[in-house]
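Give me structure tokens for this 191-residue protein.
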Amino acid sequence: MELLKERIRKDGKVKGTDVLKVDSFLNHQMDVELFAEIGKEFKRRFADCDVNKILTIEASGIGIACITAQFFHCPVIFAKKNQTKNIAGEVYTSQVESFTHGRVYNIIVAKEFLGPGDKVLLIDDFLANGAALEGLAKLVKDAGAELVGAGIVIEKAFQPGGDRLRAEGLRVESLARVKGMSEENGVEFVD
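Here you go.
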């Protein structure tokens, strides 16, 4: 998606060789018009899947998932990283190690929102090591729902997550695949 790549080149900030800060338009301050284009592209790529639920993980994926859901005309479920008093009843749970935060979370989704008959599309802002997608995929499997694929805004293709998940049979569609990056040279994309 050329529009996204141009935005990353223009406003993304590389820290070291593995951190790409896109908080000015993607995951802190959000460019909703860009999100609309992202949502349209995910709809185009997954139009054949009869998606009836979108699942993401809090917090950065929520905005992207909500805009994307408008194009699929379906609800968004977000896996919470902490049990709260608002979640009563039975839940699906999975463990996820966050690349960004360097810690392990127990993610949860109330069973009333996910179950057999659901065709679920995962949406997230980044794919690095794949732990978040694996955790979300486990929730879908535990619910007896069908996982149709994962829509990723930015994939760090130099890290193992995307290749491993594809090898395991998950359909992963990434809008921008980063081959490498450095503070000196910026971001280099696959393709």
